[in-house]
Write a structure and sequence with these properties.
Largest sheet: none
Strand content: under 5%
Number of helices: 9
Oligomer: single chain
Radius of gyration: 22 Å
Distance between the termini: 70 Å
C-alpha cells in the first residue's frame, strides 16, 4: 500500500512539473508576442495578444485589453481583428454595445472577403441591428458567405430569397456576383 501511494505521489509530482513547464512556455510565448505586438507593431501578434486577453489564455480575461490589441491590428487592415472589433461592439465586451459600430467593423472585414464578417453583416441586415432592416442586403451578404462554404449562411440565404420579389432577388444576386468577382480579382 505504501509503495502504491509513493508511486502515485511521484506520478503526481511529475505531472505538476510538466504542467508548470507548459505554463512557463506559454508565459514565455505570451511575453514574446507582447514584445512583438508593442515594439514591432506586428498586426498578427497584436491580434494574437487580443485573443489571449479575450479568451483568458495565459492571462486573466480582460475584454478592454483585448479591444486595445484588436484595434491596433484592425487599424492595420487585418480582417480577423476587424471582425473581432465587430464582435466586441456587437456583444458589448470591453466597450459599450453599439450595433452601428459593429456593422462598420464587420463591413471592413467583409469587404476583404472575411467569411464570418460577411455572415454577421447578413445577420445585421436581416435583424435591422445597426442598419435599416433590408432582406435584399441580407441576401447579398449571406450569398457571399455561402459561396465560401458557410453552411448556415446558405440556409439563411435561401430563407431570405423567399422573402424577396423576383426583381429584388435578381438585383441582389447581381450585387453579390459583382462583389464576389471584385474580391477574387485581387
Amino acid at each position: 500500500m505504501k509503495r502504491t501511494i509513493l508511486i502515485f505521489v511521484i506520478c503526481l509530482s511529475a505531472s505538476v512539473s510538466a504542467s508548470a513547464q507548459e505554463v512557463t512556455m506559454s508565459a514565455r510565448e505570451l511575453a514574446e508576442t507582447q514584445l512583438l505586438a508593442e515594439w514591432v507593431g506586428s498586426p498578427v501578434d497584436q491580434y494574437k495578444l487580443g485573443n489571449a486577453y479575450y479568451r483568458g489564455e495565459g492571462v486573466t480575461r480582460d475584454y478592454m485589453q483585448a479591444v486595445k490589441w484588436y484595434r491596433k491590428a484592425a487599424d492595420q487592415d487585418m480582417p480577423e481583428a476587424q471582425y473581432m472589433m465587430g464582435v466586441t461592439y456587437d456583444r458589448g465586451e470591453g466597450l459599450p454595445q453599439d450595433f452601428a459600430e459593429a456593422v462598420a467593423w464587420y463591413r471592413k472585414a467583409a469587404g476583404q472577403g472575411y467569411v464570418a464578417a460577411q455572415f454577421e453583416l447578413g445577420n445585421k441586415y436581416a435583424k435591422g441591428e445597426g442598419v435599416p432592416q433590408n432582406f435584399a442586403e441580407a441576401y447579398v451578404w449571406f450569398s457571399l458567405a455561402a459561396a465560401a462554404g458557410h453552411e448556415t449562411a446558405r440556409e439563411e440565404r435561401d430563407e431570405y430569397a423567399a422573402k424577396l420579389s423576383k426583381e429584388e432577388l435578381i438585383s441582389a444576386q447581381q450585387r453579390a456576383k459583382q462583389f464576389f468577382e471584385g474580391v477574387n480579382k485581387e
